[in-house]
Amino acid sequence: MKTKTKIKIFGDRLAWKGKYNRIITREFIGINGKRGTWEIVERKAKGVVVIIIPVTKTGDVIFLKHFRIPRNGYVIESPAGLMDKIGESPRAVARRELLEETGYRAQKIIPVARVANNSGLMNEDYQIYLATDCEKVAETTHENAEDIELIFIPLAEVETFFGQQRKISIAAPMYSIPYFLRRAGLIS
């Protein structure tokens, strides 16, 4: 479904560059004919951000209680990672990040969706994978900025888990997980 936009983009400029991210200002003419500038955050990655929905052989979904420095607090997330190695495929990133962050390995890694991440601020996509028949094979290898606790939720309780009120925020993409589990026939 391709629609011709009434907004005209006519130039990007590097506004700031850090080690992992940069900010681009994009000049445009809006629908009312006036010029505008939009600030876009870009990661210096080689491709998409990969998100993994791991389901163990025993029927639990693995979530992370992950301390996030920008929020100065914990967030409920799924294992995820950046394509930051030249030539590494999104599926290979999914396998690597699942093992590093959880210590689990999946029998199957199935692509389920590619979605926009915070499209009003960033120009990156998430590639979401379902990882099935996961089993513990190693200890986790967290990076310096990763304070992660694993949370195991039985498949039958995933929707209830997301419906509970709690003091810990839940990352927005997590709310789509019941849909993907239902579509895969893992919950009804």
Structure description:
This protein is mainly β. The protein folds into two domains: 36 residues; 135 residues, Nucleoside Triphosphate Pyrophosphohydrolase (Alpha-Beta Complex). It has three helices and twelve strands. The strands form three sheets. Strands 4, 7, 8, 9 and 10 form a five-stranded mixed beta sheet that branches. Strands 11-5-6-12 form a four-stranded mixed beta sheet. It has a three-stranded antiparallel beta sheet with strand order 1-2-3, with no helix packed on it. The radius of gyration is 19 Å and the shape is globular. The protein starts with 7 loop residues before the first strand and ends in a 5-residue tail after the last helix. The mean pLDDT is 93.
CATH architecture of the largest domain: Alpha-Beta Complex
Please mark out the parts with pLDDT under 50 across 5 or more consecutive residues, or reply none: none
The portion of residues forming beta strands comes to over 45%
Determine the CATH topology of the largest domain: Nucleoside Triphosphate Pyrophosphohydrolase
**What is the H level of CATH, i.e. the homologous superfamily of the largest domain?**
Nucleoside Triphosphate Pyrophosphohydrolase
Question: TL;DR?
Answer:
The protein has helices spanning 90-102, 158-163, 177-183, and strands at residues 8-17, 21-29, 35-43, 49-56, 60-68, 73-77, 80-82, 104-105, 108-116, 125-136, 148-154, 169-170.
